[in-house]
Design a protein that fits this description.
429 residues; mainly alpha; MetI-like fold; 16 helices
């Protein structure tokens, strides 16, 4: 070995070591960037969910006041108890119990009456209708509080708040404190949130109507989109000729998957409502619009699952004498079913959270009650969130967050079902 060679070799080795050290440093930085990106994403997710839970957890419980009410025969008609002003009757008796004297105009009685929900009169009327012999006796009635009184008991309203920024007067807050000090106030799970439809009164509003509406829409969407989407994907992938026409169809399917959802809403208004004259705000129209949105996703996911099946499966089936149709439907499609089910469920979950097309077809309007068919006007969970968030009453804002939690729960369940099904039936090649 010459002197020049012995001089060059250590220098080259040093350069190689420096280059290797630089590559390792870049790899560590890349891993650090990845960990940082994941941490930031998780942080924003925790912040979002934490804010929603903080605002919405109070909607899952409510307060009611246990009141002894004398069923005055002079003011109650046993044949028509719902015509009795039970709210005023209870308010006047509660003022007497608290030792408060009302004025001639009944101002204090009206102020006391506003602390209880209008549900009070229906509960009292139901009691008298079921047991008219209680007229002339004192009956204990659990009276649900109004939205403002409920917010006060939840700590959302304070007496330190300026009077012009709250609807409760100092006197009303004093009455609420005395009721609580007497042990008449009880906290209970807010079943009305899940057993009632929308209402103009926040304490009576629930998500049941919107929940049923969303379920009916998803049913229509699944019945239409899943068979058509899978059938179209199977034909395009397994039976159609590979030419310019099929290439054009494939490009347009991919483009349709990226079309904004509001465009599908405009299409639904033009075709299903203005041309086909289907009932506005109904689950059938919403389901048809969402089916159009879900079709491209289902077709793309199904085609990808079919492509993932090894060609040897097809070749082996054909070699054993199976026809092309038998090969596809008895061998290829069953093996691709995990991916097909995953794509279908994810597309349904995506459709469940869509809002823009539902607003355009009229599901932003106030619809009380629960729908019983796909042709009745109804709301949906996303549109209900929009309506409640734009309401003026403060109590609707906590119910908005609660409705978001219900919607997120359903979407998480659907996505979890997709993951479980995929892992349950997935085949490794």
């Amino acid at each position: 070995m010459t002197e020049a060679t012995s001089t060059i070799a250590p220098a080259r080795a040093d350069r190689l070591k420096a280059g290797l050290k630089g590559r390792y440093a870049r790899e560590r930085r890349f891993k650090l960037y990845g960990i940082l990106a994941v941490s930031v994403a998780i942080g924003f997710l925790v912040l979002l969910l934490g804010r929603i839970i903080e605002q919405g957890h109070t909607a899952f419980y409510a307060h009611e006041v246990t009141l002894p009410v004398y069923m005055d025969p002079a003011r109650i008609d046993a044949s028509y108890p719902q015509g009795t002003n039970f709210e005023l009757l209870v308010a006047e008796q509660e003022l007497v119990r608290l030792g408060v004297t009302d004025d001639a105009e009944g101002t204090k009685a009206n102020a006391m009456r506003s602390l209880f929900s209008s549900e009070l009169k229906y509960r009292a009327a139901d009691i008298i209708r079921a047991r008219p012999h209680l007229i002339g006796h004192t009956v204990t009635i659990p009276a649900p509080t109004s939205d403002e009184a409920d917010l006060y008991y939840k700590g959302e309203i304070s007496i330190e708040t300026p009077a012009d920024q709250r609807r409760l007067s100092d006197e009303q807050i004093g009455w609420l404190d005395r009721m609580k000090a007497d042990g008449a106030v009880r906290t209970h799970f807010n079943t009305a949130l899940f057993t009632k439809g929308d209402s103009t009164e926040p304490e009576l509003a629930g998500v049941l109507g919107a929940l049923v509406g969303s379920a009916l829409m998803l049913m229509v969407t699944a019945i239409i989109a899943i068979p058509i989407g899978i059938g179209a994907a199977v034909y395009l992938e397994e039976f159609s000729a590979k030419n310019r026409l099929t290439d054009l169809i494939e490009v347009n399917i991919n483009n349709l998957a990226a079309v904004p959802s509001i465009v599908y809403g405009l299409l639904g208004v033009a075709v299903f409502i203005n041309w086909a004259h289907l009932p506005r705000s109904s689950p059938i129209v919403g389901g048809l619009v969402l089916a159009l949105m879900a079709l491209p996703t289902i077709i793309i996911a199904t085609r990808s699952s079919l492509k993932a099946v090894p060609p040897s499966i097809r070749e082996a089936a054909l070699a054993m004498g199976a026809s092309r149709t038998q090969t596809v439907f008895q061998h290829v499609l069953p093996l691709a079913m995990p991916g097909v089910m995953t794509g279908s469920i994810i597309s349904m979950a995506h459709a469940l959270g869509e809002t823009a097309p539902l607003l355009l077809i009229g599901m932003v309007s106030f619809v009380p009650g629960v729908p019983h068919s796909i042709a009745e006007p109804t709301g949906a969970l996303p549109s209900l969130v929009y309506i409640w968030e734009n309401a003026s009453e403060r109590a609707f804002h906590e119910r908005t967050a609660a409705a978001i939690l219900v919607l997120l729960t359903f979407m998480i369940v659907m996505n979890a079902a997709a993951i479980v099904l995929r892992r349950r039936f997935e085949r490794r090649w």
